[in-house]
Structures are given as C-alpha cells and as structure tokens.
Specification:
3-stranded parallel beta sheet; 13 strands; about 475 residues; alpha/beta; 24 helices; globular
C-alpha cells in the first residue's frame, strides 16, 4: 500500500469519509476478497464486512475453540447479530424416563451461569442440579440440548460483541400442537437472554423478534424468566425500537390466555423506554397487543390453582410515555380499546403531537373507526388528522379508467378529423367521458396493456391497414 505510485488513489484511500462511503457500497463477496490484498485493506474493510452477521445455532456453534477465537477478533465490528434456530425434529425433547422404573421423571431446570476457566471446579458442580439428573440428561438428550443450556458459552459469545446495536432472534416452524411443550429452542432462548443481561452491551437499542412462537415471551422475560436477577431489567431498558413477528394465538383455544398474559407482561418491560413499536401477528388475526388487559378472553379465564389470590387482580393497562411510532398489523380489536389507548397517551397527542399510529389490516369487532379515533379530535382540538389519513388512503388506491385512443391518418385534413371526433363523442352516451390531463396521467399501466394487447397483435394491425400511421 505504501509503495503504490498512484498518488490520487492514496489521497482517496486516506480520506476517511470518501473511503468509508466507497466501502459501504462494496458487495460482501468483494469485501472478503479485498481483505486478502494487504493488511491495510483488510483492516479498513473489516468493519463493513462484519457489520452484520447471522448464525444458525448448532451443537458446536458457541463451543468450537477456533470459531470463538475468530469471533473475539472481529466481534467489536459487529453491529447487528441475527440468532436463528428453527423448530424441527432435532429440537423436539421427549419425556425423561427413569431407566429402572420406566416412569417419567420431572425436570426442574435451573440455569448454570457460573463462568470459570478452571476445568476442575467446573466438573465439581453438576450442571443440572444433581449428579443423577445430569447423568440422565446426558444419556437421553442430544448434544444440541446441552449446547443450548450452556449459558457460559453464550455469555462468552455476547461478551465479544461489545458494540452490538441490533439483536435479531428468529425461531420459526413451531407446530401448534407443540406450543405447551418445552423444546431445545426454549432453552437456547433462556441462555441467550441471560447472556445479554450479563454482558457489557451499552450500545444495544434495537430488538427484533422475527417468526417467534407465543411461548418465547416467557423465556425471554427478564422479570420472571429462568435465571433472572434483580438487575436483569437494566440491559433491556436500553431498547428503543422493538419489532415483533409472532405466530397468531387463537382466541377460541382454552389455553390461549396464558400466552396472552405472558405477551402483555413481556411488553410491559419496555414501556418506560420504548420509542418505536412494530407488531404483527403471523397467520390469523389476533387481539390488539396493546390492549390485552381489556380482552374478554382474559377476564373469563378460569382461576389458577397455583395463584388463586392474584387471579382476581385486574390487569394494568400499558402506558408508553416516550412512544413516537406505533404500528400494528393483522389485529382484531374493539373501537373502545383503541380509543382508550389514545386517551391514555393524551399528552403525546396534545403537547408534542409526536405520536404516530398506523393500523394495517386491522379489523374492528365493535364500533367504527370514527369512534376509535375520536379522542384524537377531542385531545388535539382539530380534525387535521383526518385529512392526512385520507391523503394516505388515496395514495394507496390504484385507479382504473377507460382512456379513448385514436390513431391519426397522415393524409386526412384537420376539419375531417374534428367531424369524426364529434360524431364519436355523440355516440358514447352509455359510457362516461373522462377528460383532462390529470385523468390521463392517473391511468394505470394495466389499461395500456388491455388496449394495445401483445406486440404481435399490434404488428398485424398496422401491417393490414391502408393508411399510413404516425
């Protein structure tokens, strides 16, 4: 690099803004090849090449020494980390069976979180409570389970990602019949949550839960999850943007109340710091996630035998004092639920006018949208929000119309053309006439296709006529 005779290239390369702007547009494959050219190219391209990494969790993902050593070298460049672990037959856990009696053995999981470099002290403590249970799990559960429950390995991994800003978690593919069965994916989520809480991730501000199952909120909950500590909430209060894509919870199921309660409790952990919230149900429509406290399904739930006293306590509504943008999709709610949410956030609407609401593919069980959004008029004192919503609705509508098109012969006088046009317009009494340049500009591309047909059709039309066309 220093021996390069091209001074213009050297001036460009040593200009930080110009070089970084160029490297941000270079494809990933070319960045990998660029790192092989020389040491300086490698050090400059590394932050852009490793800015976002994605892993699919396997039994040796966080335990292979060479891979972990490489992650420690490049971990400070990572800004976005995508953890992917789909549900499959490999993640299914069968019941534990006592080899002597043949009876099912209950397993009370308590995460082993002690991190030590001394292998002798690590082997002196059982990983799963007792030596008998540890021996039973080693013999009957696959290596993927033990890797998912290896909390120290997860902590070591996330400790290398010191500049992490965006964490993505994806766990697709769970069958609906397995929603009340704990799988290896759930143990991995527990380890991941503990690792995030006990690592120095001061830049983390965005969390994306993509294609997750309903029970995942129980294992990701820092306030009531496995291995939670009093200071576990500190790391999650950094989250400013939360994106959730969750499998729909059917309301007609008798066991759906538990999942809805876990979801409300999980969202409640981010209410004090959240600024952007994007939620979408995957599959069928499901309840409005912000107003779960007023759902009739939760009010009619049967009392819990474990906590009969707490069952009678009403669910508290969610309040987001710093919320700026809220987007929900594929939801079903009452007009009163949406109106109540807007009323609870009247300060954001009245004083700063900073709250932006977006409802995509939403369905109202009772009431109308005028009733649901009526608090906006009462709080702001004007109907200005209606004009903005109508403009956005008009932009999303595609207009179709019939556009008259005539081909002009070359050797015909203008007076004759005017007479033909007047006769044509008098005969069009059954169809409305659209005039004006604005109407023609709004004609869609589909109208052009219907009028002209295919290229071969137009070629035959022009070749068979006796006039010359221009």
């Amino acid at each position: 690099m220093i021996m390069s005779p091209n001074s213009a290239f050297l001036n460009f390369w040593w200009t930080d803004k110009a070089r970084d702007s160029f490297l941000s547009y270079v494809p990933t494959e070319d960045l990998a090849s660029l790192r092989l050219a020389c040491h300086d190219f490698g050090s400059r391209a590394a932050p852009f090449l490793f800015e976002e990494i994605s892993i699919s969790f396997r039994s040796t993902t966080f335990t292979k020494q060479s891979r972990m050593a490489a992650l420690e070298r490049i971990g400070h460049h990572v800004k976005t980390f995508h953890f992917n672990m789909p549900h499959s037959s490999e993640t299914f856990l069968p019941p534990l069976i006592d080899p002597l009696t043949g009876e099912e053995v209950s397993f009370d999981y308590e995460p082993y979180t002690r991190t030590t470099k001394d292998s002798t002290s690590r082997l002196s403590i059982p990983s799963y409570g007792s030596w008998e249970m540890t021996d039973l799990l080693v013999k009957q559960y696959p290596p993927l389970f033990h890797s998912a429950a290896n909390v120290p390995a997860f902590i070591r991994t996330f400790s290398s990602l010191k500049n992490l800003k965006h964490l993505k978690i994806s766990c697709p593919g769970q069958e609906q019949s397995h929603r009340y069965r704990r799988s290896i994916v759930d143990y991995a989520l527990i380890s991941l949550r503990i690792a995030v809480e006990r690592s120095q991730l001061s830049s983390l501000n965005t969390l994306s839960l993509l294609d997750i199952h309903p029970a995942s909120t129980l294992y990701l909950n820092p306030s009531m999850g496995f291995g939670a500590l009093p200071n576990s909430m500190r790391r999650w209060r950094q989250i400013r943007r939360l994106i959730v894509r969750m499998d729909a919870i059917p309301l007609d199921a008798s066991t759906s109340q538990d999942h809805l309660k876990h979801l409300q409790c999980y969202i409640n952990n981010f209410t004090s710091s959240l600024r952007h919230f994007d939620f979408r149900w995957q599959g069928d429509r499901a309840p409005y996630p912000i107003s779960l406290h007023s759902e009739e399904a939760l009010k009619k739930a049967s009392p819990s035998l474990a906590c009969p006293m707490t069952y009678a306590l009403p669910h508290k509504p969610l309040r987001f004092p710093r919320l700026r943008n809220l987007r929900t999709e594929n939801t079903i709610a009452n007009a009163s639920q949406i109106a109540s949410f807007i009323t609870r956030h009247h300060r954001a609407v009245r004083h700063t006018k900073r709250l932006k609401l977006k409802f995509d593919d939403a369905h109202l069980r009772t009431g109308t949208w005028i009733e649901a959004l009526e608090p906006l008029t009462r709080i702001s004192g004007s109907d200005s929000w209606k004009s903005s919503s109508e403009e956005s609705a008009e932009d999303s509508i595609e207009e179709f119309m019939d556009v008259p098109i005539m081909f002009t012969p070359v050797d015909v006088k203008q007076e004759e053309l005017n007479r033909i046009w007047d006769d044509h317009m008098r005969t069009r009494t059954s169809k409305p006439c659209y005039s004006g340049v604005s109407g023609l500009q709004k004609a869609s591309a589909r109208t052009k296709e219907l009028l002209f047909g295919t290229e071969e059709h137009m070629r035959k039309l022009f070749s068979s006529t006796v006039f010359g066309w221009r």
